[in-house]
Amino acid sequence: MQKRLLIVSNRLPISIEKNNEGYSFRQSSGGLISAVGAYLKGQGAKVFSEKLWAGVPDCGEDIWGLASLNHTGADYDFLPVFTSTGDYEDYYNGFSNSVLWPLFHYFPSLADYRPDFFEAYQRVNQQFAEKLSQVIHEGDTVWIHDYHLMMLPGLLRKKIPGITIAFFLHIPFPSAELFRVIPRAWQKALLEGMLGADLIGFHTAEYVSHFLKSLQLSIGLEHEGEYIAHQHREIKADAFPVSIDFSLFNSAHRSKEVSAAKDKYLAIKGDKKMIFSVDRLDYTKGIFNRLRAFEHFLTTNPAYIGKIVFIMVVVPSRHSIFQYSERKKKIDEFIGRLNSTMGTISWQPVIYQYDHLGFHDLLGLYMACDVALVTPLRDGMNLVAKEFVASRNDKMGVLILSEMAGAAFELTESLLINPNDVLEMAEMLCVALEMDPVEQGQRLSVMRERIERYDVNAWALDFFTQLSRIKERQKKFDIR
Ligand code: F6P
């Protein structure tokens, strides 16, 4: 049995909410939490004798102390990392989500290169390194996740040189041309930070090649295939498309709660067709273009007036950043206008919920809808697409998927669209709504088999296998 696994991410997998009885817990949102959380719950993670998840709680130390006591039954322990409110603001809302997020998702005009943001990012990464170095033992595996902590592998390597460190990026790595838009010293700090890991994982081969090209262009570091020699160590960069717990989604139809939720949504649907989408509120998700496409579809296909409903769930996210709060207002206005101009007293084209969605309702909606619309302008992977496919055990339903999502490389039997092409999206809606059930089943079967084969456990196993191989190679390969 392997020793301890330390998972490190900005956000802990639970969010704490105060209510009348005390505190309640909800799973945090985002692909990272769903994937890593699912892996830790499964059999695959049993190879580790102990698991610890480090991250910043979404409450202060006093509340964490009280609330975490009530949280039992997790498959791992928590290691809370506390930062000052000011530092967290500049590291999370600032450098992570107002520099790296927009730039890495190809929205360079939204990036705000403030030096104080970068300083806070360095400080918080350093705080993570301090906290972790207090608990790390020899033989531990440290798995660091995502763009908030790109400097952490390097900082930790300096403190404990012999340790096993892996890093996984859950968002796209942009083209080298775009990456070098960042001030030069920051490029160097980010890349050298990542190179502190032994294995660096990305969702797709494209992101790997962008990263390798950035090493050449930004810091003049060459590579041989996926291997990089840096500071007397050999490091590997490779693609591991993140996945889901296929069996959980595939068998969800057997759950009473999911069936009840499905029936509730089928009753709303009645004899109409139903389209469904769910995303965090984010400008990368293409929510406007999707709404515009739906409006265009209704205008050009009047036969569907009164005979279709679009259930759109938007999950609150990063609301203290202007681009997010502003978008919320605009989405509200768009839907209000669309419903009032095209709807009638007895029919509302868009049913809109701005809130978190529980697991049973999510599954009920996946199963009740005819078409799932997953149309981000840019997305590292997008697990909603995979979840929808896996939950359709009845082999019915159509996935319309953006070719700008990492998932499009695997889910090639979906109806692929360019999310900037509103007319194409509207046409594809027609194709989806009129698709013969046999074809729906054929397309879903191929995608379902693919996800089942490379589910979240296969993803993690693949990752850890490559990690032990690179550790073995490092022993043989003295590049000093
Ligand atoms: O899919 C993964 C992800 O996009 C992360 O990169 C991100 O941290 C998360 O989902 C959601 O964002 P946040 O943590 O800001 O709520």
Automatic annotation (TrEMBL):
UniProt GO BP: trehalose biosynthetic process
A single cellular component GO annotation: cytosol
One GO molecular-function entry: trehalose-phosphatase activity
Highest taxon listed in the record's lineage: Bacteria
Family from the record: In the C-terminal section; belongs to the trehalose phosphatase family.
Protein name as it appears in the record: Trehalose 6-phosphate synthase /trehalose 6-phosphatase
Organism of origin: Pedobacter soli
Residues of the full protein shown: 1 to 480 of 746
